[in-house]
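Data card: per-record layout.
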Amino acid sequence: MFLTYRDIAELFPKRRGIANEDLSFYHVTCSPDFPQPKGLYISTSLSAEGLKTALENGAIAAVWDESADVPKFTPNHFPLFFSNNVLKGLLDMMKLYEQKTKNMGSSSGNWTNFHVNSAVIPDEFEYREELRMLFAKLDEDGRLGGKE
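The structure for this 148-residue chain is written out next.
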């Protein structure tokens, strides 16, 4: 079961670009350098270069800090979801996905793979431990819920 545009739009109602509720995300990553076909890029920095690299590596949408300017090269149709706290948004996204997949266990099938690590979490982040606990639940393929 993949995360979908509809799932992400519920978490981030402020957005721009195409609104395709049938769009599925195969990967979620905070690293623009990670190959992410059909990926959702979570921008933990305000780097325009990071977004450009994520696009080149297959991102089909991104979560962007609402206080940052959108880079001029961003295609008008490219879905951007705006957040006032990107890391809190990532936490909420992982919780939503954990709930969505909790009855799947380690079954085979289509999973959204999370490629994230605790290095992106600043020490002062209010929900640091909760996010680290979710990261610890990722299996070796980046599946949340694939590891008991």
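Known properties of this structure: The first helix runs from residue 5 to 11. The first strand starts at residue 3 and ends at 4.

See the next section for split statistics.
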